[in-house]
Amino acid sequence: MRVIVTRPQHEARHWVEQLQGVGFDALALPLIEVAAATDSQPVLQAWQNIHHFDAVMLVSGNAVDHFFALKPVGLQVSARFWVTGPGSYAALTQRGGVAANCIDVPKMDPGQFDSETLWSIVSMQVQAGTKVLIVRGAGRNANGALGVGRDWLAQHITQAGGCVTEVVAYQRLCPAFDEQQLALISGSATDGSVWLFSSSEALENLKASFPVQQWQQVNAVVTHPRIGLAASNAGFGRVLESRPVLSDVIACLHTLQ
């Protein structure tokens, strides 16, 4: 079975290697291109003001990488760090150099890694006047529409009396596809390939780039209910949901063999 991994290039490479290691014909087709933000000054300013924040929430591993790339050398930070999943946690500990006991992250057991699950863990930290910095990305799809991600967590922090500051550390772009990738996308609609989606934005980029492509014969594995809804709306014939961890994704893929 061929599995098409749609994560950004750096993340896709890891997933492809892991899936190939257990026998799948996996390949990367990034549907989101990640680059540094066009203006680095807001991130530099955020680092200068880092001691004013009680917590720093990083929305992804890309947020970690691009935010910490501009961290002043030797700066000590006392704030808590919040992340939603194991990938961001690994980036924060390994590349960000943050101690594990300074990080709040959902445990592997609950089944989902998202803002809702994170909030159930960190909500007790937020009271009137708590200051939270959210580090996120900004993106444009193939139609040029701007998206900055969900604001669910920011709303709940504000409702609890906290103060939210947001900073854009990176940008997400719709990639340009070469001839080989175009042939892969066209052929995958009928050759039994399975698409692995971990982002609704990736699906939006796919739909915007290939508006007439039909997906009724294609199976998709998604890592969140919202992504599953987006895949169904895009016309994918069968959509299966999995936790965003390798063992669960593998088990889900085996059901399609």
What's the quick description here?
This protein is α/β, with parallel strands linked by helices.
Question: Uncertain spans, ≥5 residues at pLDDT below 50?
Answer: 141-149
The level-1 CATH class of the largest domain: Alpha Beta
Count of separate DSSP helical elements: 10
Radius of gyration: 19 Å
Number of strands: 12
Overall mean pLDDT score? 91
Report the β-strand fraction as a percent range. Answer: 15-25%
The CATH architecture assignment of the largest domain turns out to be: 3-Layer(aba) Sandwich
CATH topology assignment of the largest domain: Rossmann fold
Structural class: alpha/beta
Q: What is the general shape?
A: elongated
What's the structural domain tally?
2
| Helicity, as a percent range | 25-40%
Largest sheet: 7 strands, mixed
For the record, give the distance between the C-alpha atoms at the N and C termini, rounded to a whole number: 7 Å
What would you say this structure looks like, in words?
With 257 residues, the chain is of the alpha/beta class. It folds into 2 domains: 2-32 and 175-254, Rossmann fold (3-Layer(aba) Sandwich), CATH 3.40.50.10090; 35-173, 3-Layer(aba) Sandwich (Rossmann fold). Helices cover 36% and strands 22% of the residues. It has 10 helices and 12 strands. It has helices at residues 9-21, 41-48, 61-68, 86-95, 115-122, 152-159, 179-187, 200-209, 225-234, 246-254; strands at 2-5, 25-28, 33-36, 55-58, 80-82, 103-104, 131-140, 146-147, 163-173, 194-197, 219-222, 238-241. The strands form 2 sheets. Strands 3, 4, 5, 6, 7, 8 and 9 form a 7-stranded mixed β-sheet that branches. Strand 7 (131-140) and strand 8 form a beta hairpin. Helix 3 (61-68) runs parallel beside helix 4 (86-95) and helix 8 runs parallel beside helix 9. The longest helix has 13 residues, at 9-21. The chain is elongated. The protein starts with a strand and ends with a helix. The model is unreliable at 141-149 (pLDDT under 50).
